Amino acid sequence: MLVNGIDTTQLAASEQLLRTAPGPVGLAVRVRGRWQDAYSTQVETDEMVVGGEVVPRGHTVHVDLPVLLGGRDRGPAPGELLLAALSTCVAQGIVEQAAADGITVRRVEVAAEGELDLRGAAGFDGIPAGLTGVRLRFAVDADADAGQLDDLLAGAVRTSPVADSLTAGVALDARVARVHPFATAQGTGHPQTDHDVQQRE
User: Fold this and answer.
1) Do 33 and 104 have their domain in common?
2) What gap in Å lies between CA 146 and CA 152, rounded to an integer?
3) Domain enclosing residue 85, as ranges
4) What is the mean pLDDT of each run of 10 residues along the chain (201 residues)?
């Protein structure tokens, strides 16, 4: 049965599989990016791994800053993408949970905003570089009363991977490798690094 475009029979079956799984059911998301110039970077979704199954992707986003901040305004800024990821993840949760409850949703609109202190991004000591707060405001046209909408939102926020990553914190492992100009590791399609050279010598 389709509710809000979601196959609720398949949704229930997937939930049952997750409930009976003997251990974690992993989902890995991967993106790749290449700096263009100034503050401009082109990012492409690489692939998604769902329970061990590789799902090819290939969507491209051009990330940039507005001219006022030194960019060329070729695409959304990283902070805007962060708000987009959060707001759409929660919106998806609202629609999915409504479908599971048999609630028809006709329209969902969301406005997201957040602030940060540019001094932190510039490296000033003692000032956080990140957002200090985020506000999400949803407008939903659905066969639900105010209490049901509050419950849908609360459930969507609680189960949102993006919201949880932001509020609970996530371990960050960032590394850098020196890339040799115009060289590509054989058979990988990836830039050649010092590590690649050591492995091949």
Assistant:
1) no
2) 10
3) 76-194
4) 94 93 94 97 96 94 97 97 98 98 98 97 96 97 98 98 95 92 58 50 43
